[in-house]
Amino acid sequence: MQFSCCIGALCAILLPPTVITAPAATETPTPSLLSWSGMTHVGRVRKNNEDAFLALTFDANEVRYLGKVGEASHDQGDFVFAVSDGMGGANAGEFASRIAVERITRLMPRMYRMAAQKMASGVNDALEEIFDHVHAELTRMGRSYKECAGMGATLTLACFSPGWLHFAHVGDSRLYYLPAGGEMQQITEDHSYVGWLRRQGKLNEREARNHPGKNALNQALGAGQQNINPHFGAIRCQPGDRFLLCTDGVNDGLWDNRLAEYLSGPSDQPKAFKVVERAVAESGRDNCTAVVVEMGT
Question: In the chain, how many domains are there?
C-alpha cells in the first residue's frame, strides 16, 4: 500500500454521516442475536502480515475479546469488529495495524455509555475520538523513531448495538452491507483518487481494479498526514442482514459479485474463512483479512 498527498480539494470535502434505514424500520424486528467469523492470512508473496482484525464485546464495565467464530446475544453488551491494514518500512506496518486495534479496545467503554443513551451524535463523537487518538499515536511514533518513519494504517470499524450498526472508516479497507433480500452495497468510501473516480462514475469496477494508482491513498491514520476526515455513518439492522469488513488484499483477489455470493450462499466453513481462502487462491499478492457479521433473530 502506498500513501500520497491529497489531489486538489478531494480530501477537503466534508460529507454528513451516512445513514441507511430499512424500509418500514419501525415495524422491523430488532435482531437480538449475531454471529461472526474472522480470518487473516499473510498471502502468498509477502513475508509479514501487516493486517489485523478485532472482535470484541463490551459494556460499561469491561471489554471481552471474542474468538474467530461465534454467536452471541446483545444481552451480553455491544459488539465491535474492525480491520486494519498497516503500512511503513521494516515491521512498522505490522506494528501500526496492531496499535490501531489495541487503542479501540482501550477506548470502547466510554463509547458504550454514550450508545446506551441512544445518542447517535455521541457515538459518532466517540468514534471520532478513537480515530483521532490512533492518528495522533501513529504520527507521534513516526516522528519519534526512525524505524517507524511513515508508518500508518487504514481502519474500518463497525459497532453493533441493538438494531443499529455505527461505523467509522479511513483508508481503502471496506465495509459491505448485504441486506436481507437485497443487493450488496459498498458502504465505505475508498480514500484514494481511484476511489473518487469510481464514485463519480468515471471508472467501472474492472477499470478501478486495473488502475496503476489504485493503491495510492490520500487519507490514512498516521502516514505523515496532518489531518484526517473519517467517514462516519449508521445502518438500521434487521434479521438476515450480513456485513463484511475486509482489507484491500481481499478485493485484489475477489470481485464484488463473488463476495456477495460467498456472503449469501451456503458454506461448509465460516464465511470469513472462505472469503480469505478464495482471495488468497485468486491473488495472494497482499495480506488478506475479512470479518463477516450476520444478524440473527
Answer: 1
Give the Cα separation of 68 and 171 in Å (integer).
Answer: 24
* Position 191 in a domain: no
Residues 215, 218: Cα–Cα separation, whole Å: 10
Q: Which residue has the cell 472469503?
A: 275
Does 207 fall in a domain?
no
User: pLDDT tens across 263-297, in order?
Assistant: 999 989 999 999 999 999 999 999 999 999 999 97
For residue 93, being part of any structural domain is answered with: yes
- 12 located within any domain: no
Cα 185 to chain center, whole Å?
A: 14
Amino acid at 287: N
Cell 466517540 found at? 126
CATH value at residue 131: 3.60.40.10
CA dist 135 and 192 (Å) reads 18
CA angle 57, 260, 213 (to 5 degrees): 90
Give residue-wise pLDDT tens across range 53-87: 999 998 777 889 999 999 999 888 889 999 999 99
d(C-alpha 156, C-alpha 134), whole Å: 12
Enter the C-alpha cell of residue 112.
458504550
Residue 166's contacts (CB-CB under 8 Å, 6 or more residues apart) are 115, 120, 123, 124, 127, 158, 159, 232, 233, 234
Reported pTM: 0.90
